[in-house]
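Researcher: Next entry: Peptidase M14 domain-containing protein (Daphnia sinensis).
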Amino acid sequence: MMSLLFAIALNCVFVTSQIAAEENGVVSYEGFQLWKIKPNSEGDRQFILDIKDEYELELWNERRLARDPMDVLVPPQSQTGLKFKLAEHKISYVVVISNLQTAIDNQKTNVNRTTSNSKAAYNMDWISYHRLIDIYNFMTYLNTTYPKLVQLTQIGTSYEKRPLYVLRISNSSSPGTRPAIWIDGGFHAREWISPAVATYIIQQLVEVPANAKLSANVDWYIMPVVNPDGYEYTHTTNRMWRKTRSVSSTSTCRGVDPNRNFGYMWGGMGASTNPCDETYRGPKAFSEPETLATSNFITGKSSQIKLYLTLHSYGQYALVPYGYDVVYPSDYNELLALANAAASKFVKYRYTVGNSADLLYAAAGGSDDWAKSIGIKYSYTFELPDTGANGFTLPPSAILPVCQDFFPALDVFATKVATCCGAAATTTAKSLTTTRPATTTKPKPTTTTTKRTTTKCPCTCG
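Model: Predicted structure:
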C-alpha cells in the first residue's frame, strides 16, 4: 500500500513540475535519459509495460517481438529505482542518450539562423531544421516562381487557425488527369526529419532539371506539415510534443494523435481513450480539423491518387497495411514487392520492410490504412532514420544524408504509378475499393540493403 501511495505522489510531483515548466515557458528535459532496454522474454517485455506508469516511462519505439529492444525515456527521479528494478529481473539496458536536453540543444543549433547565402530566394536549406514560416514561405515562393509547374492550395485551417497547405507539382497541360502520388509529413509534431524530407522532395522535383523525368507522367501532391500547431509547439515550448493542440471537453490534457484519428477501424487496438495519452484517438473519427481537411482533400482526388506515402520517424521501416491488426490485404505481396523495390534504392540506411502491425504494434485509425480503404492501392508508411541512437533528436548534420538517401526511391514509385496505373487514372474511387481478407500464410518481413530489384508490369491498380 505504501509503495502505491509513493508512486501516486511521485506521479503528481512529476506532472506538476511539467505543467509548471510549460506555464513558465519552455519545457526542460534536463537529466532525462533514453534507455534501450533489452527484454529476454515476453514476460520481461510485459513487466516493463506493467511498471511504465509507476516510473513515468515513455515508450519511444517498440517492436512486436519479445526480445526486441525497447527505447524508453526515463525521467531523472525514476532512474535509480528503475536501475535496481531491472537488475532484480536480470534485464539489461544501455543508456543511449545521457541527457535529452543536451541532445535537443544540439539539434536546435541552426534552427533560427539566417541563411548565409544573401542571394538565396528563400530561407530554406537541409542542413538545419526550420520553423513553419520558413516552410510556408518556401512553398509560396515556388508557387509564385513556377506557376506552370506548381500550385499551392490551402485545404483548411488547423485548430489554432494556421493554414494547411498542399503543393501540387504537375507539368501536364491538364493537371488532375494523370495518375498521382501523395506524400505527407509532420503528422507527429516531434518528428522533425519528416517535414525536412518532404520539403527536400519538393525542392528536388521543382528546382532540379535532372529530376523533371519524375513528373513526366505523374503528378505529385505534397503536404509537408499535417500538424502545424504541434510542430510549432515543439519549436517554442515542448520539443517532445507529439499530438495536435486541440482542447478536450473532458480533460485538461490537450491534443489528439492525428495518426489514430482517421475513420478506418477507428478506436481499435493501439488507440487510447485517455486524452492524456500520446496515442489518444480523439472523441470521434476525424475530430481534428487537420485530419478532416486532409482526408477530404485526398478523397476528392482519390480517383487520381494511386500511391499514398506518409513519412514518420523513427526506426527505418517501410510499412505495408494493415496497421490496425495483423491483417494483410489481398494484394499484400504486390504492395510488399514495390516497397522492397523502393527500399533497395537506399544505400546509407537499411530499412526493414513488412506489415506494420506485425513488425511493430497494432495502431488503429492510421492514415495509411484509411488511404488503402478508400481505394488508393499502394499505401505506405516510411519510418525515417535513425534506429535509436538519436531517436527524435536526429542532428542537423543527418538531414541531408537522410534526404539524399531517400529521394532515389521516388523513381521506383513514379515508374510504377506511371507505367502500371496510367490507363486507370480516371477510374472512379468506388471501383477501386479494396477488400481486406487475412492471408493464410504470414509473410515474412525483409531487411533491404543495396540489392537492386525491379517491379514488373503489367499490373492492376484497382
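Model: Note for the record: The chain has 13 helices and 13 strands.
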